Amino acid sequence: MMIEQAAKQLEALGNTTRLQVYRTLVRAGEAGLPVGQIQERLGIPASTLSHHLQRLLLTGLVTQERRATTLICRANYPVMNDLLGFLADECCADAGCGSQTDAAA
């Protein structure tokens, strides 16, 4: 993953409302949720939700599928896992996690 993409995704999640939307979709699982249900669960105006969903869509964290007149939103789990992996891949690479754990014991 490129650092620029990770920065954009983290910036999108840095807003309280967007983080609530994203966590709601992550909790919903692969089935996702219709936009109306997200709005009901979070109690935010449709225009506000639309704005925040657009930011999450642009960064790839969320996908949408149209079913007749309903928009289904889903967390994009592969993208989420890539971002989490990017953050954790080099954990303690310069410090050596094993030696820190041993010293703390």
Strand order of the largest sheet: 1-3-2
What value does the Rg take, in angstroms?
17 Å
Give the CA-based shape: elongated
**Fourth-level CATH superfamily:** Winged helix-like DNA-binding domain superfamily/Winged helix DNA-binding domain
Number of strands: 3
* Order of SSEs: HHEHHEEHH
CATH architecture: Orthogonal Bundle
- End-to-end distance: 35 Å
CATH class: Mainly Alpha
Low-confidence stretches: none
Secondary structure topology:
Layout: H1 3-13, H2 16-28, E1 33-34, H3 35-42, H4 46-58, E2 62-67, E3 70-75, H5 77-88, H6 97-104
Antiparallel strand pairs: 1-3, 2-3
Helix pairs in contact: 2-4
Quickly describe the structure:
The chain has a three-stranded antiparallel sheet with strand order 1-3-2. By secondary structure, the chain is of the alpha+beta class. Helix content is 62%, strand content 13%.
